[in-house]
Write a structure and sequence with these properties.
three-stranded parallel β-sheet; alpha/beta
């Protein structure tokens, strides 16, 4: 199983989740929401071979945390993974959108300077602006759009720009999510949960619950679950090559 976007440090009992990961053979990208959280989260997952930690500065926190951009830039050479970063254009965050853009551009500039980064990107209600930023920083690395919720034409543009997509079970229970997923390049798809922020059937999703997304992807692709799993593992191997 693969969970390419969750927040291990924000689960109420991260140790329980980490123990579960060992048993369930799950590959995880644990994204952080501020550069200050990166070090502690990296310590937390030490010794877990299948877990990586992203260096992030969440768009919803930019208003209070923009001063951590310098810390972000100084830590960037230490990790291949960046996230959660991006833009949020929902009404609650719109007041900070100019500052968000400024910070996101600085992040992409820094990524282009070091090269070779993989980025887990938030684009809620701001897909076009996120794609503009990606387009204007061609060397910034490989963008993985997490929980994509744009329009079909934005999806086409994202695919043309070489974006990957991480898809969660919550996305695949909506008609819109299924339709978008059908239009995504199959060799650029990974699974995610966005746990602990997603709840299904009254329970917080755990990284191995991405099996639900694998089952739904198998259905969409018209193949069996094992084949879908193999396909996703092959995608991950290719991305990390
Ligand atoms: Mn997230």
């Amino acid at each position: 199983m693969i969970d390419f976007h969750c927040h291990l440090d924000l689960y109420p009992e991260p140790e329980l989740v980490l123990n579960g990961l060992k048993q369930k053979n799950t590959y995880v990208l644990s994204v952080t929401t501020t550069p200050l959280a990166w070090h502690g989260t990296s310590e937390l997952v030490k010794g877990f071979k299948r877990v990586r930690v992203g260096l992030g500065l969440h768009p919803q926190l930019v208003l209070e945390r923009s001063n951590e951009i310098e810390l972000f830039i100084s830590l960037l050479p230490k990790t291949r993974y960046v996230g959660e970063v991006g833009l949020d254009g929902t009404p609650e965050c719109r007041q900070s959108i100019d500052m968000q853009k400024e910070v996101f551009h600085l992040i992409l500039d820094a990524c282009a300077k070091v090269g070779g980064r993989i980025l887990s990107i938030h684009s809620r209600s701001a897909v076009s602006s996120v794609l503009d930023a990606i387009e204007s920083h061609p060397g910034a690395g490989t963008p993985v759009l997490h929980w994509f919720s744009g329009t079909p034409s934005e999806l086409d543009r994202a695919a043309k720009l070489g974006c990957w997509f991480s898809i969660g079970p919550a996305m695949l229970i909506t008609k819109k999510g299924v339709r978008l997923t059908e239009g995504m390049p199959r060799d650029k798809i990974l699974t995610e949960t966005d746990g602990p922020f997603t709840v299904q059937d009254g329970k917080v999703l755990m990284p191995w619950d991405t099996i639900r997304a694998v089952k739904l992807l198998a259905k969409i692709w018209g193949i069996d679950i094992q084949a879908a799993h193999n396909y996703l593992m092959e995608n991950l191997r290719f991305l990390l090559k």
